[in-house]
Every structure is written in structure tokens, then in C-alpha cells.
């Protein structure tokens, strides 16, 4: 993997998140059009799994204050995408 500057690394991370967000929202919209109730159940299951995983990560190193802040920001962004997907 290429060593990137922190700014380039952040830009790449934001771009990747943007692509994944768009793909997830498109997928959710398509699933909801096909059959709404099973799609909502699937999206909720994905949301629960992500929330559980984020909670597990937060508990692994309780003394890591900067990481907790970054994790909180990331968790908030992921939850916003999940809420948007539910509202498609």
C-alpha cells in the first residue's frame, strides 16, 4: 500500500465513504421497491450489526480518547447513512 500524507489519506477515506454511502442508499432504495417489509428487516439487521460492531470497537481501548472521538464521528456518519436508507 502506498504511504500517503494525512491529507491525502483523509481525502481517500472521504471519497471511499461517499462511494459506499451512495451504493448503500441505491441498494436500499431498490430493495424497498421490490418488497418493502423484508427490505426494512434486512436494513435494520445491518444497522444492528454495525451498531454492535461500533460498540465493540469503542470498548476495546477505553483510554484512547482521540480514537473514541474519531470513532464517535464515524459512528454518527454511519448511522446517518442508515437512517437515510430507512427513509428511502
Features:
mainly alpha, 88 residues, 3 helices
User: What is the CA-based Rg, rounded?
Assistant: 15 Å
Strand content: under 5%
**Sheet/helix structural class:** mainly alpha
The percent of residues in helical segments reads over 70%
- The quaternary organization reads as single chain
Low-confidence stretches: none
Mean pLDDT across the residues is 84
Largest sheet: none
User: What is the CA-CA span between the terminal residues?
Assistant: 36 Å
Number of domains: 1
* Helical stretch tally: 3
Q: Topology as H/E string?
A: HHH
Give the number of DSSP strands. 0
Shape: flat
Kindly describe this structure.
- It is built from three helices and no strands.
- By secondary structure, the chain is mostly helical.
- It has one domain.
- Helix 1 packs parallel to helix 3.
- The longest helix has 29 residues.
- It is flat, with a radius of gyration of 15 Å.
- The N and C termini lie far apart (36 Å).
- 5% of the residues are buried.
- The model has no long low-confidence stretch (mean pLDDT 84).
